[in-house]
Amino acid sequence: MSNELFTAYWSGGEPTGSGKSPTLDQTPDYIDVVELYELGINADGSLDDTALVKYHSQATIKGWISGIRSRQAGTNYHTRFTLCVLGGSIVYNQDPTAFAQTIKAAVDDWGVDGVTIDYEPPSDDTFIVAVVTAIRAALGDSALMIAPVYAAWLAQPLRPLQAFAQVMDYVETMDYGPYPGLKETKSLYESYAAAIGGPGAPAFGKVIIGVSCENPTNDRFTPLADVVSLCAYEPAGGTKAGMMLFTTSYDIKSRPNRTGNPQGGTGLPDGTFARTIHAKLP
Predict the structure, then answer these.
(1) Distance CA 236, CA 251 (A)
(2) pLDDT averaged over every residue in the chain
(3) Cβ of 17: how many Cβ atoms within 10 Å?
(4) Phi, psi of 200 (to 5 degrees)
């Protein structure tokens, strides 16, 4: 097993079945954290699970989670699950304490281990720190909290990356749309770690490198050779936290993409990206 964490998203918005995306229960046991993608935020602060349950009910997804936990009992595997909450509206018109209780209720209802907060700037509203701090207080220290970040977060001090990340167990880079290349991905990684750790104290062990297998014909794709290099990469003076895959649902040879183009998919055997990350992580 790897010394570094392997996190991956699973999308409820992709059709499953023969020649389509895998169901959640087909998730390989070697993936340490599965982030259930996605929950939206309604104007009144309630959560919208329409995308997550587009093809399978909450009961079915919860059954798959239970099944994975049961099959891992007595083994060295222990996959954890988070609900991915997506939306810039996370910082607007929300009472932090009330919204935190909404998150806690969802985590308890789904029976998952925590939450992924996918707040995507641009915004100079530092209120997000108050929101995630309240969520941490509501969930407790044992809950898993993860947040994807991308280059917009480095526009300090307007976007308070350091304070935001301190609440999280891990942050995941998602600089893959458009993919900037191997050198820039590594450089951004070190910039995040330095910003999170503060001057002279990079927080390498908190930052996970994200890669995407969405579609090689668009700009949201990390070449497999670069995935191999990023798995092996370790920053000078530290060790990375691990790798994130977006998503296992896209890690198939052929699938319809978001516009219905039948040429979607990686063009590689199903599961190639997941198996590669598992094999190449230190």
Answers:
(1) 31
(2) 91
(3) 9
(4) 75, 5
Rounded Cα distance between 6 and 37, Å, is 16
Copy the structure tokens of residue 75.
């083994």
- Residues sharing a CB contact under 8 Å with residue 55, sequence separation 6 or more, in sequence order: 12, 13, 14, 15, 16
**From CA 270, how far away is CA 19, in angstroms rounded?**
9
Lowest-confidence region among 178-182, 198-202, 207-211, 276-280: 198-202
**How would DSSP label each residue in 85-105?**
EE-GGGGSS--HHHHHHHHHH
Nearest to 38 by CA among 104, 97, 119: 119
Please provide the size of the chain in residues.
282
Helix, strand, coil shares, percent, the chain, to 5: 35, 20, 45
**How many angstroms separate the CA atoms of 9 and 27, rounded?**
10
Average pLDDT in the 53-58 region?
Answer: 97
Q: Is the pLDDT of residue 83 over 90?
A: yes
**What is the per-residue DSSP string for 159-226?**
S-HHHHHHH-SEEEE---TT---HHHHHHHHHHHHHHHH-TT---GGGEEEEEEBS-TTSSSB--HHH
Cα gap 92→128, rounded to integer Å: 9
> Furthest-apart CA pair in the chain: how many Å?
51
Q: Please identify which residue in the block is written with the tokens 């898993």.
A: 144
pTM of the full structure = 0.94
Alpha carbon distance 127, 125 (integer Å): 5
**Per-residue buried b or exposed e for 259-280, using 16+ beta carbons within 10 Å of the residue's own CB:** eeeeebbbebebbbbbebbbee
Six token digits for residue 103: 């998150």
DSSP H stretches of helix in 111-176: 127-139, 161-167
Angle, alpha carbons 55-57-61 (nearest 5°) = 100
